[in-house]
Every structure is written in structure tokens, then in C-alpha cells.
Amino acid sequence: MTDGIALCCPRCDWQTEPGRRSRCPSHPDRQLELDYDIGAVRERFDPATQSRSDLWRYDPLLPVEADPVTLGEGWTELAEAPTTGNALGVDLGLKLEGANPTGAAKDRGSAVVATHARERDAGRIVCASTGNAAASVAAYAARASLDCSLFVPERLPDAKAVQPLVYDADLVTVSGGYADAYQRCRASASEPATVDRSAGASPYTPAGAQTLGFELAEQAPRADWIAVSMGNGGTLADIWRGLDLFSRAGYLADPPRLLGVQAAGCPTIHDRLHGSESGAEQPPGTCADSIDVDDPHRAEDARTALEESNGATITVSDPSIRDALGDLGAGEGVFVEPAGAAAVAGIETALERGLVDSGERVVAVLTGDGLKDTATALDAVGT
């Protein structure tokens, strides 16, 4: 539904209805943002009356009207983690985003983007990705009978490379890093009847991704912190948009603070906020390929979310990511991709630095399933 929802330019007063344009004519370099009439939100949506247990329980808050393109994404489990929490000294919950259909949180944005593409009669979706978004959008394009072209950097775990091929997507491997893949994708996105799902390219991606914030508001209303790893910064930014909307609508009394976690070998957003702390001895790159982003297109959105939530950022080493991956498996029976393990490693570092206090309620967002990258998992367990 779209009543009470507008798409607004963050640089001027220009706005439009959902479904019309994704860019401001005066500022085409900036993605439009969702703007909600809070009175309309309260009239149309009450979380206490929702019976669906998927992303589309939030249909009144989404800027699409077509029948949803869905594989049952969303409303993932929030599992308690007593063993790891006791070891850290916090009340720890794990948001299991690997339970989404393609094994990653990216399915939230892909579902809404694919629905929007079908709504506007587009025939093709494109995406630049380090892996998870590529696999995700390929699945939803297949579900919607849309063509799909994906642009990925050379270094990609086998599982993430195989998934798009199974979904019959066109997988284009680009020499260089994520920034190179992004530029190739932007050129391809200019073709007619094409929708771009890349970070920062469409307001419909964060529209779906913010449902993770809605769910955290419902499932963990007393959380002190939400810890999430950052690559492009979009997941953290969209979690905050969801939490903030629920707070303004009166559904969440006290929004949590955000802890943004980056790999020490790719601290692009952290360094923009605090200056470089990685040191010359830190090799570039990280085992957590999902957050190995050299040019984060939503860094400013992440900055805003961190400032508004009175949050913090932290960097963690690859050995600490592998340790957290192994600890979650052995202690909680949860197999998570390295980017998800980075969130738990970040909590430990934040405790050591006095950013998070002992005994606080902390939820770690585990962004993807461990089967996304079995090679790093084998390294983590010493095999």
C-alpha cells in the first residue's frame, strides 16, 4: 500500500508518489528516501493485530501495491544465546537472518524490489554485489519471471557464485573490487525496462530492508544495543529507519543504540567517522567477503543512523571473526557467515573498550548462513 508514503529527495523539497520515479530531477546522484505520514501509519497499521509471520505483515508500510513477489522471507527467529552471552557478560540475542529463503538478510530488499519491478512492467533486474545480494535478487527475479544480470568482483566464495547460476542469472565477474563491479552495473542499469537493486540505487531496497528494524522493535523492545556488521552500511541504516519509524509511531518506547562493526582490513565507514586506526601493518581485505566493500555507497546513511541512535563503530580482526564463528557453532549450534560472526566479535571488542556495559541486552544481527562461505568456516575450526 502507498497511502501516506512519499519518496523525497534528501537535498531539496522535491517529492513524488511511489512507483513514479526513483531519482530527483535536480539531484539524480542521490537515492530518494521514504517519508511517512505518521498519522496515516497509525490508522493503517497496528503491530498487535498482525497475523502474518513474514515480511508482508508490514505491507501497509511498504511502497508497493502489486501482489508480492515472495518466497516467505522475513520474521526470522530471535534466538537467545546463553552460552556466548554468559561468556561475554551480556544478555545476548541472535537475529537469525540466515533463515531467509536464500540464506541472507538481503532477501528483504530483493522481495520489495522484485515486486516494484513487476509493478512497473520492468523485464530485468541488475545488481552489483559482493555475493549475498546477487544470490538473493537472482532468486526473486526468477520467482517473478524477470531477467537478471549480476556484476560481482573476482573474489567470491563458491557457494555465492553457484546460487545465481542455479537461478539462471547472468553472472558477470569484474576485474578489481566492488567499486569496479558497481560501475559496470550502473552502466547496464541505464538500459530500458531495467531496475537496479544495487546499494544506493533504488529506494525500494531499503523499503524492504527496514522491515528488519520493524521486527527487532517487536521482538526485542528492551534491547540496549543492536550489533550489525557494515559493508556498504545499508543494513545498519535501514535497521535504524525501521526502529525510528516504529518509535515515532508510538510502537517502540526506547529505541536501542546501534553498534556498527567493520573488519579491520576494510574499515571504510569507521575510518570516515574516526580516522584511520587500522595501521599500516593491517593487510587490506577480509575473510568476511560480505562486508569487503571498498567504496560504501550508503556510508552517509550509516553515519546518520549512528548519530541519531547515539551509536558507535568498532573494527575487528579476521582472527576474532573466525573465533566468533567457531564459538557460535560450538556454543549455540548456530552456523553463520563471517560477516554475521563479525557482529559478535564486535560486541566483545566494544565491551573491552567500555562502549557496551556488562549485563546489557544486546542483539547481534547474523546476516547470513554459514553455508555461504564454508572455506572460512574450515579455517575457523582448524581443518
TrEMBL record:
GO biological process, one term: L-threonine catabolic process
InterPro entries the record matches: Ser/Thr_Dehydratase, Thr_synthase-like, TrpB-like_PALP, TrpB-like_PALP_sf
Modified residues (N6-(pyridoxal phosphate)lysine): 106
Residues in Tryptophan synthase beta chain-like PALP domain copies: 69-368
UniProt GO MF annotations: L-serine ammonia-lyase activity; threonine deaminase activity; threonine synthase activity
Highest taxon above the source species: Archaea
Enzyme class name: lyase
EC number assigned by the record: 4.2.3.1
Obligatory cofactor(s): pyridoxal 5'-phosphate
Transmembrane segments: none
Keywords associated with the record: Lyase, Pyridoxal phosphate
SUPFAM superfamilies per UniProt: Tryptophan synthase beta subunit-like PLP-dependent enzymes (SSF53686)
Family: Belongs to the threonine synthase family.
Name of this protein: Threonine synthase
Gene name of the record: thrC
